[in-house]
Structures are given as C-alpha cells and as structure tokens.
Write the structure tokens for this entry.
Amino acid sequence: MRLQVTHRTSYTYGAPVTDSYNELRIHPISDDPQRVLVFELAVLPEVKFRTYRDFYLNFVHFFEIHENHTRLVIEGRSVLETQNPFAMAGSLGGVSFAGLAPCASREDCWDFLGASKYVALTPELWRLALDLRAESNDVLDTVETIMRWIFREFTYATDATTVKTHMLDALAMRKGVCQDFAHVMLGLCRSLGIPTRYVSGYLFDGGNHALRGDHASHAWCEIYLPELGWFGFDPTNNQLADDRYIKVAVGRDYDDVAPIKGGISGGGKNPAKLEVAVRVERLDPPPPTQA
C-alpha cells in the first residue's frame, strides 16, 4: 500500500517566545514492512536542522530558535510503501514461553523487558498477567488475549488522561487513549517476560473513521518473537498492526518517542494554544474486490 501522511502542529503563544529548543520524531522508519519514499519537513519561523539517530535508531530532527516569535508551525510530509508483516512472516504460532529465554541476553530486547518511566512491573500486575495467560504456553495466543482484554475492559476517553499519565493510573481508571492502552499492554506483556516495545506512528482508516486514533498520532505495541522479529498489536482497536500502520519511532514508552519535545523561554503565563492535524491518504488504488 502506498500512503501519504501530513502531520501539522502549531503553537500560538500569548506573548513572544525568546528561545525555543525542539526535538522532533516524526520521520518514519524504513524497515522490512515499510519503506519511506519521501520525507519533507518545514518549520516556521525558518530554522536549520541537526539530524541524528537516537539510541533506538529513531530519526530525530533538532532545531533552536533565538528570535522573538509568537507562533511555531511544524509540518512533516511522508510518502511510504507498507506491507503486512504478518502476511510476510506466515505462521507465527508455536513460540513457547521457554523459547523466550534467549531474549534476556539480546541487546535489542533487554530494554523492553523491564520497567520504564510510564510502565511499572508490580506483583499485582504480574498476577493479573498470569490470570490472563491462564494455562496457555503459546506467546502469540497470550499476547492476543491481553490485547482483547484491554480492548474489552477499558473505555476510550480522550479527556481522562494526559501524556504524563502513568500506566498504573490508567489501569486503575480502566480508561484512557491509545497511549494508555499501549502502556498497560507493555506492563502486562513484560510481566510475563515478553519483550515488548512502544510504537508511535499513524493509522490509515480509508476515511471511514471507524478506528480509534486514525485522525491523530497513534500508538501500539510490538512484541519480539525469536527468529521471527517484531510484530505489532493494537489494543486500542483490538487488531494486528498490518499494512495500514505506519511506524515512526519505537522505545520503552511514550517518553522515548514523543513526536515533539522541547522547551521555551517567554510565551506568557498562559499555556500556548496547540493545534494538531494528521491526514493519512492512500495514493495507490485498492485491490479489486473479490466477487
């Protein structure tokens, strides 16, 4: 599938900002399931970027502004080709929990087995994860059970949490947005020794708006299966992350992948007015419907 993403963020300040420092993680990743064909980034006021890869190999664009301004506009445009990683891999069943043992010594898995800023590992969480696992020894089956449980038990509520809400608080409330659903799934899967990482990106819904998170940045989880690689699960929509999902950045939790991080001097006492708009469009025609 060929997709185009336009991600526009604007800040309007109540008073001039004198200094602004920003890190952007809105450049999608190129890996086996997806290939970035075009990435363009524009910022007003005009800036010079420093680009690098962070610890998890995400693209980062850094810029600073030292002239007075009352508005900051950031717009990224990407064109990608995506494939369904589950279709590419074929059958994924049959990975046992004993088969995860080598993951504890893998550098690319170690950070995704423990607690992080927004994800805790507690005895109570471990007990809940064991209850959800029940008698299953199949990792994929257990992960899908956890995903379905979160989708069924949690209420999607955009005003219940913030980007700084901890997983344990979202779990207690049983409500939140895609970030919270993903954080809870991270904690449950990691409690069982499953390497699980946070993914930020976008979701194409064909303009139907039937899926949660299609109108903004989205978040889901990826688990690691030995000899097979990383595969995505979306507890917000109770589905596998297929070719409709565009991966931008991965990390231990939201703190590692926030689309925009930074700080300012000035701007007045009132919070800046923030506007975010994400548009995902399909550029190639869909396959013909089977009769």
About this structure: The chain is about 20% helix and 40% strand. Residues 2-82+258-282 form a domain with the Immunoglobulin-like fold (CATH 2.60.40.2250). The first strand starts at residue 2 and ends at 24.
